[in-house]
Amino acid sequence: MTAAHDESDARPLVLGLVGTDHHPFDRVVAWLDAFARTHPDVHVVVQHGTSQPPTAADGVPLLPKAELAGLLDRAAVVVSHGGPSTIVESYRTGRMPVVVPRDPQHGEHVDGHQQRFARFAEQRGLALVAHDAAALTALVERGLAGDLPRPGAALPDPAHAAAVLGQEVARLTAVPSRRLRLLRRSARSGARAPRG
Fold this sequence. Notes:
The chain is of the alpha/beta class. It is 43% helix and 11% strand.
């Protein structure tokens, strides 16, 4: 494990992940650092990337995949940037991710795609979103108390999803377009299909 994390530490773990984008995400690192300062009974580890390292929380710029997987498995709460793969990894390990999307108005990204994806994930029950330090603290405290929803309920049943997809494909192919009808007619008669 990284020097920022000691497996013998029995305190509950809050894992903050800002990702690998070259834009600093100092805002969320500062929020997690403030949380660590006021909650010494909680072990806060922040993967801070190019952001300023935390001073109260344990910080590491990057995490190798195996270490990240181990920390995700141990974490009581995962705080993530709005990157889809990080959100999915948290969700996959049974943690409802608390998401703080990067904001281009703060120079944290080139555009607002993380904000749009975070909104999409929240609307579908796949993430909880915090837009300020107070909301982040409240969600992390709820997570430490075991009061966050468990992942899984919002994920569609694969058999149901396949059935719905099949119905949609059948609906779309039931009434062929004019061009498709012409192509079929041409194929049966051996004639060339009209262009256009």
